[in-house]
Every structure is written in structure tokens, then in C-alpha cells.
Amino acid sequence: MADKKDDGKTYWLERPGSIDKIFWTLCGLCALLFLTDAVYEKHPHYAVEYWFGFYAIFGFIAFFGLVLLGAQLRKILMRKEDYYD
Amino acid sequence: MIEAVPPGLILIVGALVVPFLRGHLRAAFMLALPVLGFWQLLQITPGIYGEAQFLDYTLVLFRVDQLSLVFGYVFFIAVLLSVIYSLHITDTVQQVAGLAYAGAAIGAVFSGDLISLFIFWELTAITSVFLIWASRTERSYKVGIRYLVIQVGSGVLLLTGAVLIIGETGNVTFGQIGLDSLGGKFILASFGIKAAFPFLHNWLQDSYPESTPTGTVFLSAFTTKLAIYALARGYAGTEMLIWVGATMTAFPVFFAVIENNLRRVLAYSLNNQLGFMVVGIGIGTELSLNGTAAHAFAHIIYKALLFMSMGAVLHRVGTTKASELGGLYKSMPWTTGFCIIGAASISGFPLLSGFISKAMILTAAADGGYWITWSVLLFASAGVMEHSGIKIPFFAFFAHDNGHRVREAPFNMLVAMAIASALCIYLGINPATLYAILPFPVDYAPYTFAHVITSLQLLVFAALAFAVLMRYGWYPDEKPSTNLDTDWIYRRLIPGVVSRFLASLAEARNELRRWRSALATYLLGRVFHYHGPRGILARTWAISGAALWVMVLLGGYLLVYYL
């Protein structure tokens, strides 16, 4: 399928362990952001925003949930590619 | 002098001149048009221009105020970006259609009365369909027809509403309309179609992905944002729009997750972004309307950027199906970079344009006490991160390498993407530039510590959720597929019902024919029975019998005579 040969270069992303490095860096960043919640004064509109790390938890759950729910939606909505043809 | 020219007319007239120019001259001319138009807007003083009496009504040639100016500015920027992006093409149809379409949309934005609005409204439909047909495939032809029917239908609703309102009030001015009158309801339906309200939305996902790589960039900017402008002008503070808008932000998210064609994912994403703007209009406060205008401005640029990056992929690889892409960062590094800027911008990362505009609408929702709407918008923000922030760049440029080794996008495409990226960053860093041109004075500071941290928390944890889903193989595979949406109703259900009805009609006709021929056969049979060679009336009679009958008759006659 290759339109042109690779120039023999190994990309950083393709080295073993690189994906792990990204994953754990992301985890570290998340931990840091989560803890930042302790250091500033909140001026929220709603009480939930007082929860420690509310936005972090909301972001994670919303994303996780919508992907899994979307996957279920396929059972109802997915048809063959040439369905309308 | 230039002040008396209706904005947009420069593009429409320019579009008509384009076919007579060739080569570099044509390119230079097309580039000059949006620059000239933008310059004209900068010269113009807000006010009402060219009032004319027609019958008993006062028509306004065009009206310039803060709201129309914001949309006017960004429309011209979008034209410039689209023209640069499409400089490599030589298809005159697309060039003329693109410019005329943009000119019509700008004309509509500056329309002072409902009649001019209607004329420009229909003109956008008629010109833009050529950008879809420009793909020159059987498929795009059919899509174009569907698109045209729906768009022109929207115009018919607008005209109906306008006639009702003018008949009732005698006023043709396009101002606040509201839902009190029947005409107002018609016009809302008309705007709702173009703004892709839930259940009226599917023309968008149906048609935009079928246009050419360059055509979609044009399309993404104008029609829907014209509708947003029109809603902001006519229906600000209409509470129903809050719910409509909130629904619009949420449901496309799920469709975007499972869609395989990345340009269609962007169309769902566009729908979701419009939802934020519609919510802002529904809330109707100064902050929320500013938010809508600011978000439309920022959105047009980063959405064009995203469509440009996918257009570049389509141009080089020949497909934007996620299941057939991957690993393109190796051969299209610049496009990858620009796409990531657009993706981060739409997601609302700090220092980029989405951050400074979307937050105004969320804050306005919270200020107004619409806590359900606020939570839906927050959910939708995570959704934007999913489909536009991660899915688009990840599956096109990273994911599993599908082995495509192509050239980087053409230079003019890269220049257009670079300018759009620069604008995303510029607006993110200098929100004051954008805030200065909004309809109302802005008292909003996006860069507070709390706002930056909470946004980052939401987005980075959403990214973490993606990383976890990928790491453990829970993320649904990209599969070649068609997903049913409301277009199923008019592409399958109604044609199905109609063809079944026609089939049963044909069946009934056949049945009737069968009866008719059976009846004819029966009647002929009877006639044959009596008159046929062996029929009772055709028998040969013996002379004696006939003489006897004649005698009986004569005898009977004699008897009657004497009686």
C-alpha cells in the first residue's frame, strides 16, 4: 500500500516505550493539575464546583462515558458503508 | 464613495468578472476582492444606507451596526483564507460559486429589511450548491439536489414568514422578531434549518463532506453562521433557544464518536459549536450575545483550519476515512501541526481562540442560573475535546500507520493554514482585539487563574480518559460504515413509503384491468351464447315452424282487432 518507501528513519513515536512515556507523562500532568486545586481560591457559580478536582473528574467521566455510550449507539445506527447506494 | 456600495456586492460583481481573467491575473484579482471588501468595512460608518420607497414600504439597501460588522469582518477573513487555500485549482465554476456565495452571505448579514434578506438568503443556497456539485460525482449530484431542496425550502419559509409579518405590521425592517406572531414562527423555522437545529440538521452532515477539499472550506464558514447572525438579530432572548442550543451541543458528540469519515466528524463538530452560539442567543444577555458573536468569529477561523487540514489530506491521500488513514505525520508534518493548533483551539485550550470565546457563553449560562444548560455545555466541551481535539488529528495523522507516503500539502494550502493558525493564536493571546469589536461593551476577563486551571483540568483529564481507553483497547475501532441520522427519514423511510404506495397503486390498477377484461370476456361470452353460430337467436328455423308462428301471430292480431 506504501506509495513511497520510508527513508529508513525510525520516528521517535515508533520506538518501543515512547507511547508508555507519553502515557505516564500525561498521568503526571493530570496529578499535578488535580493537586493545583488546593492552591487557589474558587469563585464558583455552583456548589459542585467546590468539590476538590470537580472539573478534572467531570472531564474524565464525561469523556469516558460518551465514548462508551457512543460505541453502544453503533448497535442501533451502524449500517454497511453502501447502505444508501 | 465606497461607503455607498453594499458590502458583499464587491464579491458578487467580482465573481462575475473572474471567468474573463486568466492565470496569475485571476489569482491576484481573487485575492484582492476580500482585501478590498474588508477595507471597505473598515471605512464604513455604522448606520442605515440607501433607504428607498417601494409601494408603501421603506426598503433599506443595507444596514451597518456592531452585530453585523463582527460577522462581516470574519466573513471577509474566511473568504481570504478560502481563496488562498484554493489558489491551486483552476475550476472556474468553484471560483465563481465560492465568491458569489460568500458575497451573498455578506449581503444577507447587512440586509436591513426582510425582503433583501430573503433574496440574499436564497442566493446563498443557489450559489453554494455548485460547490457540492463541483465534486462531479453521481453521489455529489444527488447530495446537491437534497441540499438545494432543503436550503430553498428554508428560503420559502422565510418569505412566508416575512409576508405574514409585513401584512400584519406593515414594517419590513429586519429587527427583533420573536415568537409572538405566526410569521415569527415561520421565520424561526427558516433560520433553524440553516442553523442546523436538532432534526433539521442533517443536510449539514450530508452535504459538506461531499464537496471538494476547497469547497468545504467555503461552505463551513457562511451558511450556518449567517443563520446564527439572523437568530441573534431576530430572536435574542428567546428562551426556547437555550434548550434547542443545549441539545445541539450534546447529541452530535455521540454521532461524531462513531463516524468514520473525518470530514463528516467535522460537520457534526460544527453542529455542536453552533449549539453553543444558539444557547448564547437564547440567554440573550449582553455577555451571552457577546459570547455568541465572539464564538462565531473564533469558530469560523478554527473550523476553516480544521476543514483545510482534512481537505489537504483528501487532496493528497484521496480519502478522509479514519479507517484508511493514520501515520500521516511522517509525510505531512506541517499539515499535522496546523491541524493540532485548530484542534486545540476548538477544544478551548488556554492561549488559543476557543478559550476566550466559549467561556463567555458558559459564564453567561451560569450567571443566568441555567444549571442544566451549564452542565450540558460542560459535557459538550469534553465532547469537543473528543471528536475535534483528539479524534481528528489522532486518526488522520497518528494512530496505526496505514502506509500512505504522500507529499506535503500544496504551498498555498499551507499558507492558508498558517494564517488561520496564526489568527487562532493571536486571538487567544490578545482577546481584547476581538472583544473591542463585539456588539456590547465587554466586561469579561478570560485569563483568571481559576479559569485557566479548571479548563486545563477538564481537557487534560479528558485526554487521559482517551489514553486509558486506547491503552486498554476500549476505544471503538474506526470501521467503514454509514451511520443512520435523520436523513434516513427522507432517504429511506419516505422514499420507501412512497414507492410502496406507488407499488400498491400499480397493483390496484392491474387488478382493475383484470376485472375489466374478465367482465368483457363474460359479456362477450353471453353475446356469443345467444348470437353465436350455435346461439339460440342464430339457429336456422324450419319453414313449417316459421309458417306456424306467423299464423299464430296473425290469429292473435285478428283476435285483438275484434275485441
Overview of this protein structure:
The complex is a heterodimer of chains A (85) and B (563). Helix content of chain A is 51%, strand content 2%. The model of chain A has no long low-confidence stretch (mean pLDDT 87). Chain A has one domain. Chain A is flat and about 55 Å long. Chain A has 85 residues and is an all-alpha fold. Chain A contains two helices and one strand; from the N terminus they run ααβ. By secondary structure, chain B is mainly alpha-helical. Among the domains of chain B are: 243 residues, no CATH class; 73 residues, no CATH class. Chain B is built from 21 helices and three strands. Chain B has a two-stranded antiparallel ribbon. Classes of the chains: A mainly alpha (85), B mainly alpha (563). Chains A and B meet through α1, α2 and β1 of A and α11, α16, α19 and β3 of B. β1 of chain A pairs antiparallel with β3 of chain B.
Please tag this protein with its features.
heterodimer; A: 85 residues; mainly alpha; 2% strand; flat; B: 563 residues; 21 helices; 3 strands; 3% strand; elongated
Concise summary:
The complex is a heterodimer of chains A (85) and B (563). By secondary structure, chain A is mostly helical.
Topology of chain A as a string of helices (H) and strands (E): HHE
Q: How does the helix and strand content of chain A classify structurally?
A: mainly alpha
Shape of chain B: elongated
Q: SSE string of chain B, helix = H, strand = E? A: HHEEHHHHHHHHHHHHHHHHHEHH
Work out the radius of gyration of chain A.
21 Å
Average per-residue pLDDT of chain B, rounded, comes to: 94
User: Which percent bin holds the helix content of chain A?
Assistant: 40-55%
Count of separate DSSP helical elements of chain A: 2
Number of H- or I-type helical stretches of chain B: 21
Rounded average pLDDT of chain A:
87
How many individual β-strands of chain A? 1
